């Protein structure tokens, strides 16, 4: 299984190594984790579109909930930088620090795009093993 993640992503962007380890680090775990990754990333940029609309309409609680949910689902993928950026934005939203929200939103959006990029690369890298595991 050590070859399951041949990529060496930047620290804290995306890593499912710990999740794989806790799930048994075998082909079954790889299949489950790949599904978790696909499901977590499936919404693409939709959460940011929804949160941006909520912020424009000053529905701060709704925007905060979007980011909290995103942090929970994507955070399980070893996205430490995204978690940190999300917490900063969520705090600014909760405290209505409107001057800081746009830059924090942009920083979080950038981190999320990096997670999506690295998750997609990881899924491509395991595709042969994932396909074999699904047939087994």
Task: Walk me through what this model shows.
This is Hpt domain-containing protein. The modification Phosphohistidine is found at residue 68. Residues 26-122 form the HPt domain. With 136 residues, the chain is an all-alpha fold. It has one domain (11-129). The chain contains six helices and no strands. It has helices spanning 17-22, 27-41, 46-56, 60-75, 80-94, 101-135.
Compute the average pLDDT: 88
Query: How much strand content do the residues show?
Result: under 5%
* Poorly predicted ranges: 1-9, 131-136
Number of strands: 0
Distance between the termini: 16 Å
Q: Give the proportion of residues in helices.
A: over 70%
Element order: H for helix, E for strand:
HHHHHH
List the helices and strands and how they pair.
Layout: H1 17-22, H2 27-41, H3 46-56, H4 60-75, H5 80-94, H6 101-135
Helix pairs in contact: 2-6, 3-4, 4-5, 5-6
Spell out the key features of this protein.
single chain, 136 residues, mainly alpha, 6 helices, 0% strand, disordered N terminus, disordered C terminus
Please give a quick description of this structure.
By secondary structure, the chain is mainly alpha-helical. 72% of the residues lie in helices and 0% in strands. It has 6 helices and no strands.
């Amino acid at each position: 299984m050590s070859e399951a993640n041949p990529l060496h992503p930047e620290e804290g962007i995306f890593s499912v190594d710990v999740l794989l380890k806790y799930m048994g680090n075998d082909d079954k775990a790889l299949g489950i984790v790949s599904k978790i990754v696909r499901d977590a990333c499936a919404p693409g940029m939709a959460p940011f579109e929804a949160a941006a609309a909520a912020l424009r309409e000053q529905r701060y609680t709704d925007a905060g909930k979007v980011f909290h949910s995103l942090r929970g689902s994507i955070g399980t993928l070893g996205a430490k930088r995204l978690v940190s950026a999300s917490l900063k934005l969520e705090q600014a939203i909760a405290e209505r620090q409107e001057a800081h929200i746009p830059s924090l939103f942009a920083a979080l959006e950038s981190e999320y795009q990096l997670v999506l990029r690295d998750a997609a690369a990881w899924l491509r890298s395991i595709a042969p093993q994932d396909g074999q595991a699904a047939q087994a």
